């Protein structure tokens, strides 16, 4: 028989130690801070050692707390993976694919029916999020947008994104000089990639086009890429947009690309955990994505 303290005390300790806050741990576990404090006192009594140093407005781990935390975190991670595996094996056939909000909306959602047509006994779950998911637990595979470096995961390149000015044909943009009197539409990149040259902005395009004397920051700015696309479709201005995300609009003529100059940007990659490589869902998604985007 294992000699272990109550599971609730370990959950309270792990949450409080990870966040260094009884209040935040209580919020995460949907209990009161008093309950968290009581659980940790119970664990400390069981272990006969203090795990936290209590300060006026904060807590910090003792040496014993630092020693205990990694093993507790590893244990809960193992529980989570095992439970997810059991649920996956007993649940109906569901293949879960995660990607960015923009890519899911513009390129995956319109193709979702094709997956069902190929695999009528499977359901496709598209989880649109710009957060990074745990691919051991939360999804079978992902299409990620970035530099292609994802340690610990299997990475299969799909394609490189490119950016160019696009606009409604109603604007009748005839030459690059017309950009001097056009409203520029901007998508604001996140802080984590803003300084990367692959985060394309109008300044980069003007430099490559050798156009000077244009305010590269003026116009309309959006923090959401989909909103920038919608404003461009509505004829509000000229957007420097991902050609991947506006491919359907360009093909239908809703938008036009008036100039041939394009800028290279980040890469789209098919990504999955090594543990998930043999899952039927992962294999089906992998084959489907490579077929949809014509990757050998």
UniProtKB/TrEMBL annotation:
Entry keyword annotation includes Oxidoreductase: no
Keyword field: DNA-binding, Transcription, Transcription regulation
GO MF entry, a single one: sequence-specific DNA binding
UniProt xrefs under Gene3D superfamilies: Periplasmic binding protein-like II, Winged helix-like DNA-binding domain superfamily/Winged helix DNA-binding domain
The UniProt record lists the keyword DNA-binding: yes
Single GO biological process annotation from the record: DNA-templated transcription
Pfam family, one: LysR_substrate
HTH lysR-type domain residues: 5-62
PANTHER family: GLYCINE CLEAVAGE SYSTEM TRANSCRIPTIONAL ACTIVATOR, HTH-TYPE TRANSCRIPTIONAL REGULATOR
Family under the similarity heading: Belongs to the LysR transcriptional regulatory family.
Name of the featured protein: LysR family transcriptional regulator
Organism: Chania multitudinisentens RB-25
């Amino acid at each position: 028989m294992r000699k272990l303290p109550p599971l609730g005390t370990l959950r309270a300790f792990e949450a409080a130690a990870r966040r260094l806050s009884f209040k935040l741990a209580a919020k995460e576990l949907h209990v009161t801070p008093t309950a968290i404090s009581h659980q940790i006192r119970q664990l400390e009594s069981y272990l006969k050692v203090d795990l936290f140093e209590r300060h006026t407005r904060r807590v910090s781990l003792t040496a014993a707390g630092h020693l205990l935390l990694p093993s507790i975190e590893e244990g809960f991670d193992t529980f989570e993976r095992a439970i997810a595996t059991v649920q996956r094996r007993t649940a109906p056939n569901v293949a879960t694919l995660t990607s960015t909000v923009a890519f899911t909306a513009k390129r995956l959602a319109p193709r979702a029916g094709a997956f069902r047509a190929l695999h009528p006994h499977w359901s496709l779950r598209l989880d649109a999020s710009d957060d990074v998911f745990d691919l051991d637990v939360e999804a079978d595979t992902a299409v990620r947008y970035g530099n292609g470096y994802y340690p610990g995961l299997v990475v299969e390149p799909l394609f490189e994104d490119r950016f160019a000015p696009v606009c409604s044909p109603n604007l009748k943009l005839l030459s690059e000089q017309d950009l001097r009197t056009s409203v520029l539409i901007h998508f604001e990149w996140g802080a984590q990639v803003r300084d990367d040259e692959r985060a394309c902005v109008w300044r980069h395009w003007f430099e490559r086009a050798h156009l000077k004397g244009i305010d590269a920051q003026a116009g309309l700015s959006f923090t959401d890429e989909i909103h920038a696309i919608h404003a461009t479709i509505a004829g509000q201005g000229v957007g420097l947009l991902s050609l991947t995300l506006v491919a359907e609009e360009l093909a239908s003529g809703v938008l036009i690309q008036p100039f041939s100059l394009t800028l290279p940007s980040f890469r789209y990659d098919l990504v999955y955990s090594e543990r998930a490589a043999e899952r039927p869902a992962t294999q089906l998604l992998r084959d489907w994505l490579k077929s949809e985007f014509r990757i050998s």
